[in-house]
Amino acid sequence: MTEIKIPDISLLRRIKAISDLPEDHLIALANQLKLITAGDREFLIRTGSTEPTSLYVISGKVSLIAPDDKKKIIAVDKTDELKPIAQLRPCIYDVKAIGRVDYLKIDRQTLVDYAELSEAVADDISVHSLFTNYDEEDNSIVSHLYHNLMDKSIMLPSLPSVADRIQKIYRGKSTSLDSMVQILTSYPDVSRKINYVARFANQSDLSASEKIRRSIRRLGILKVYCLIMTYAVGKLVNRLPDEHMQRVSSFWDHSLNVAAISRILAKKTGSFPPDLAMLAGLVHGIGVLVIDDRLLDHRDLMLDHLEIDHAIQVMRPEISSLLLRKWNFDDALILAAEECGEWQRNPDSSADLCDLILVANYYGMMQSDRKHTLPQLDSVPAIEKLGITPGQSIEVIKESAIVRKNIRKIFA
Predict the structure, then answer these.
(1) Over 50: is that where the pLDDT of 409 sits?
(2) Given a cut of 80, is residue 308 above it in pLDDT?
(3) Going by C-beta distance under 8 Å and a sequence separation of 6 or more, which residues neighbour residue 267?
(4) Backbone angles phi, psi at 396, to 5 degrees
(5) Do the Cβ atoms of 339 and 353 come closer than 8 Å?
(6) 7 conformational bin, left if phi > 0, alpha if psi -120 to 50, beta if neither
(7) Mean pLDDT value of segment 119-143
(8) Which of 24, 39, 228, 236 has its CA 20 to 30 A from that of 247?
(9) Residue 53's beta-bridge partner residues?
């Protein structure tokens, strides 16, 4: 049964964009709001909703249910910084309570008005991403992308056929040595890459099928799977038209760097298979390819670089997730794409793959020529959970250039 009461101002201070407002402003805002308590299985918002509010889960656990029945669980502790969920309008998720959940719905224009009073966020571009002015939104590229998502007019690229076939058997849990050999013998270019890595490339006395069979045995099915997927994604990017490639080159360089750092971190910490970490790092922001393709279709909007950066910042997690689902990637890689920019994420006491990709993404941004607003290193929970020392951080960054070159060789 739903319960409603007025929120305390200490709760509102957990919303970063308004956290430094004077007490009288927060009291005025609190008096306009209702803290709602939902029971187990109650819906907080439904797919297709256009209500102009931001939904904040205060405490408890919710399930975000996509139209294809894929689910994402979000758990919020009573001390966590508050971030809006299911922001797209029309909403693309059902948000359902798992047990008791406390939440707020705040009118977005009200948030804009109060956020503008906060001097601390006056120059922070992230405020624009969370509190879009709805008088202007109909003309924004983000609005176009939102509607493209909802009407399914965004064309998602397909993986090269070798990766699609391998993905079907790998994710279908029917992977065997024989099934992999059968597929790979039809793709000599891919087989040569795998044989080279396994050091069977010069075994001329072996048939093609026997050579790839021995290579898979030596490397293991997981490593071969990750190599094939890395090869496929790299080939997909390398085949982009020149105009498209010029626009995404800095993103692709960052993705390669994150892949390299992820691989090194996995080796140093022993927490995850290095090849899987490399693949997750490579595809963590793959939705940028789709976003940029749509930007080319909206030249009439005369976008400047800040508007483009804003569109990428807001839409990258959603569209990367959508693309990786289409390609049938594992849920752990999809979660990493969705949350690797949420620096304060801390769903569990032990590190998951997303934590590792998040740290790699952080280090990659530190190395970037572009200016990024990053939190203090010691304030990122994932770094502590992975047990990375300052000395190891320096080593990782130093080693990343060589590893990045080696990754490029996979799809050269």
Answers:
(1) yes
(2) no
(3) 274
(4) -60, -45
(5) no
(6) beta
(7) 42
(8) 228
(9) 107
Does position 134 have pLDDT exceeding 80, yes or no? no
Cα separation, 131 vs 146, whole angstroms: 15
Q: Pinpoint the residues of the chain covered by CATH 2.60.120.10.
A: 3-137
SS3 category, 94:
strand
CA–CA separation, 75 and 57 (whole Å)? 8
Per the listing, tokens 């919020």 go with 76
**Over residues 107-127, mean pLDDT:** 61
Q: What CATH code would you report for 3-137?
A: 2.60.120.10
pLDDT at 257 over 50: yes
Instruction: State the Cα–Cα distance between residues 160 and 176, nearest whole angstrom.
Output: 21
Cα–Cα distance for residue pair 78/57, rounded to 1 Å: 10
Alpha-carbon distance values, 75 to 58, 86, 103 (Å):
10, 14, 12
**Cα–Cα distance, 106 to 322 (Å, whole number):** 27
Pick the closest to residue 34 from 65, 12, 69, 4 (CA basis). Answer: 4
Report the alpha-carbon distance of residue 85 to residue 64 in Å, rounded. 9
Cα dihedral 123→129→134→140 (10° resolution): 100
Q: Where do the CATH 1.10.3210.10 domains begin and end in the chain?
A: 161-410
Rounded CA gap, 160 and 20, in Å? 50
Asked whether the beta carbons of 283 and 299 are under 8 A apart, the reply is no
Output Rg (C-alpha) for the chain, integer angstroms. Answer: 23
Q: pLDDT for 337-366, tens place per residue? A: 999 988 988 888 899 999 999 999 999 998
The answer, yes or no, to whether residue 262 has pLDDT greater than 90, is yes
Q: What does the longest C-alpha to C-alpha distance in the chain come to?
A: 82
CA-to-CA dists, residue 10 to 33, 79, 102, angstroms:
14, 10, 15
Residue 274: which of 283, 282, 266 has the closest Cα?
A: 266
For 28-120, where are the E strands, in sequence order?
A: 35-38, 43-45, 53-65, 71-76, 84-85, 94-107
What φ, ψ does residue 144 adopt, rounded to 5°?
-60, -45
Q: What is the pTM of this model?
A: 0.70
Which CATH code fits 161-410?
1.10.3210.10
